[in-house]
Specification:
Elements lengths: L2 H6 L6 H8 L7 E5 L5 H7 L4 E5 L3 H7 L9 E4 L14 E4 L6 H13 L4 E4 L8 E4 L12 E5 L4 E4 L8 H5 L1 E4 L3 H6 L13
Parallel strand pairs: 1-2, 1-4, 2-3, 4-5, 7-9
Antiparallel strand pairs: 5-6, 7-8
The protein binds S-adenosylmethionine.
Length: about 200
Amino acid sequence: MDAIDWESMWAPYDDETYQYVLAQVGADDVVVDIGAGDLRLARQLAQMVRRVYAVERNCDLVQRVLPLLEPYPNLVVINVDALVWQLPDDLTLAVLLMRHCTRDHFATYVKRLKQAGCRRLVTNARWKMGVEVIDLGHNRRYDPDRAGWYACHCGAIGFTAPEFASITAHSVNDIVDVVLCPDCILQAGIDYGEYRPCVA
Ligand SMILES: C[S@@+](CC[C@H](N)C(=O)[O-])C[C@H]1O[C@@H](n2cnc3c(N)ncnc32)[C@H](O)[C@@H]1O
């Protein structure tokens, strides 16, 4: 099986994961659930928010759950590839529970969500075993002089240790979310010597 086969596999997550997601939403939210599976989370979300777009490309899965949807008039189910679907412009929150999401696809989702004006993403795609809320609205860059973990909007995660002496208990626990990381710098062909963590 390759990465894309894994990404296409449906499996539900544990209740703790769903409770974490549900704790992030408010009554006015408009949510897109990307790779919504059998809609078990989307149905719970629909009871708590203004509208849910549940996007799932597995046709059999969607067909099976359609009869369960009558009590959820604010749940819109879209049977399509989420990587190419035109996102609506009223989104306030996105959910991407897809542990096997590839880095490329993660970066594509983030780019498209930003373009659609969505500013929050709840996902397990970057850390795989952990769920997090990502602020899609900031412009923070990677700082090579800071000791500690970073996680980038391209999907990369990493730990920087300029000097071992600079690693503290705080730097081991603290994660900084960035929009440009060493992988991005390499890919963009930016000369590392010329790189500055702050945008002037
Ligand atoms: C691990 S399951 C998680 C299902 C659901 N989010 C949950 O927590 O119960 C991942 C789901 O994402 C769907 N998926 C993967 N890539 C997709 C894409 N590009 N567009 C739509 N659905 C996708 C798969 O078909 C699968 O049902």
